[in-house]
Design a protein that fits this description.
mainly alpha, 259 residues, single chain
């Protein structure tokens, strides 16, 4: 094994080892993000802010380690631009775009979570779909709480209202008692509607495939049983034929002896 292959193997090991912890941190950032916009004591806000910096520092450390291990460092950074964005965005806060940058950072971490779920869950596609839906609901509720909580005439006043709206929207129920008023909130609503339609489309397709496969399996079982019966019949006939041939050969030997 040459040095490039060793680096590639080491990079794969690092990615496998860090994927689950980074997924947990990305989900934890949702709670930190929401806390920053809740009416809580200043101490809680300070703890949330400190936790946010720790999470970003963990992602930065992960990216540095992976770049050091990667054989083609610039190519790795280009192919993992989302990880780069997560690390770079917090340094742009002095540009007076704090809220917009925090929202962009949250969306980047949500996308990172989706990628993490796909790698961690592997072949468990049903759990992967439900996990993505859960993350989408929580992230949409968090964004809605930011966009709508202080908007004039809004029916969403806190994260609880936003979460109720998100659940009603993603399930395509849409009671209409809580609705977004701001353009940003409506954009989030469109996103969550698409997620809900896609989610239930995938669930419906999965159930249909399950029943179709079940029907095909029943047909295959019947065909296998029929073939097994025919094989047993052929074996029985071969055994009878062999017995007849053996008896005929024995009688032939007796006749030759008498002659």
């Amino acid at each position: 094994m040459n040095e490039a292959e060793r680096n590639e193997t080491l990079l794969e090991r690092v990615e496998r080892a860090t994927e689950l912890p980074m997924l947990v941190l990305a989900l934890l950032y949702l709670a930190v993000f929401v806390t920053g916009y809740l009416d809580v004591p200043p101490t809680i806000h300070e703890i949330a802010g400190f936790a946010e910096y720790l999470i970003i520092a963990a992602f930065a450390a992960e990216l540095i380690v992976k770049v050091m291990v990667a054989e083609r460092k610039l190519a790795y950074l280009r192919s993992h631009w989302l990880d780069v964005l997560i690390v770079v965005l917090p340094f742009l806060r002095p540009l007076r775009l704090l809220r917009l940058l925090r929202v962009a950072l949250l969306l980047a971490l949500v996308l990172r979570s989706v990628h993490g779920f796909r790698l961690v869950m592997g072949r468990y596609k049903g759990a992967y779909v439900l996990s993505v839906a859960l993350v989408s609901v929580l992230a949409s509720a968090a964004l809605m709480a930011v966009f709508e909580a202080r908007a004039p005439g809004s029916s969403i006043h806190d994260f609880g209202d936003a979460l109720w709206w998100a659940v009603a929207t993603v399930t395509t129920v849409g009671y209409g008692d809580v609705t977004p008023h701001t353009p940003e909130g409506r954009a989030v609503a469109v996103f969550l509607m698409l997620v809900g339609i896609t989610l239930f489309g995938m669930i419906t397709a999965g159930l249909a495939a399950y029943f179709v496969k079940g029907t095909e399996a029943d047909g295959q079982d019947a065909a296998i049983r029929e073939l097994s019966g025919q094989v047993r019949l052929l074996r029985s006939e071969l055994a009878d034929l062999r017995r007849v041939l053996d008896e005929g050969a024995g009688e032939g030997m007796i006749e030759r002896r008498h002659q």
